[in-house]
């Protein structure tokens, strides 16, 4: 289990205008470990029909690798296709234009339909090592979050920055050393970092939500992140069970806490997945950002 520290201030009470914008995200908290093929996991061996070809990238002559498998009973908030109870994300572990990150493919399945499962995943071959995640078990946790300050109106942003309750918290919390109420909101009180499902995307650069070919805005689905948190966000978002690793100030221990998957997407970036449930097949688009 992994448990996020409670927010140091009741944000909806401090800034009532934010109450209606609250969303629940499912922080997946991947940590190194192995489990059965049909379990929810990041990386490692997944359940795959033996009679279905494993995806292969012709450009790099490389087999795709498993990245994320989610079961409906573990993360029902994802919203599964009718008749499906598992989502699988695989990607080619090489740079692809135009973003120079892995190219993803998404699969929806019903586990009971896989009567003869593939016994061994193909070896990827030519690949970038930091695009192949360490096999991890998941520790889903529901947390309330709020929009990035970059997506709010100027008036609401100003209200947040001038909030007496947030100012007091920024001055008083011993783990907070990064600035005023607006920065406190952005780092600690708004969008959760890390690999997660639903809620809000944590934009590193300017917000860039994609539009489907049907001209509708796509719905945010999930994020695969290089980090669980960083030097600005650890005080709130590093789980309670891992805080001793940060406090010890051992660089290797900190990396185990903040980069347990050993993924490195650009400069500690993330890939957001968006979906259009209005179109046949539920097309998915990705948005990569890094610092």
Please provide a written account of the structure.
- The protein is an alpha+beta fold.
- The protein contains seven helices and 14 strands.
- 16% of the residues lie in helices and 23% in strands.
- A six-stranded antiparallel beta sheet has the order 10-1-11-12-13-14, with no helix packed on it. A six-stranded antiparallel beta sheet has the order 2-9-3-6-7-8, with no helix packed on it. It has a two-stranded antiparallel ribbon with strand order 4-5.
- A hairpin with a 4-residue loop joins strand 7 and strand 8.
- Helix 2 packs across helix 4 and helix 3 packs across helix 4.
Concise overview:
The chain is an alpha+beta fold.
Write the layout of secondary structure elements.
Elements: H1 11-14, E1 23-27, E2 31-32, E3 41-42, E4 56-57, E5 62-63, E6 65-71, E7 86-96, E8 101-109, E9 136-137, E10 141-145, H2 154-161, H3 164-172, H4 181-189, E11 196-197, E12 219-225, H5 234-237, H6 243-247, H7 251-258, E13 270-275, E14 284-289
Antiparallel strand pairs: 1-10, 1-11, 2-9, 3-6, 3-9, 4-5, 6-7, 7-8, 11-12, 12-13, 13-14
What string gives the helices and strands in order?
Answer: HEEEEEEEEEEHHHEEHHHEE
Structural class: alpha+beta
Average pLDDT confidence is 95
Q: Which blocks of ≥5 consecutive residues have pLDDT under 50?
A: none
How many structural units, i.e. domains? Answer: 2
The main sheet orders its strands as: 10-1-11-12-13-14
Helix content: 10-25%
Q: How many DSSP helices? A: 7
Q: What does the main sheet amount to?
A: 6 strands, antiparallel
Rg = 20 Å
Instruction: Give me the count of strands.
Output: 14
Termini separation = 30 Å
General shape: globular
Beta-strand fraction estimate: 15-25%
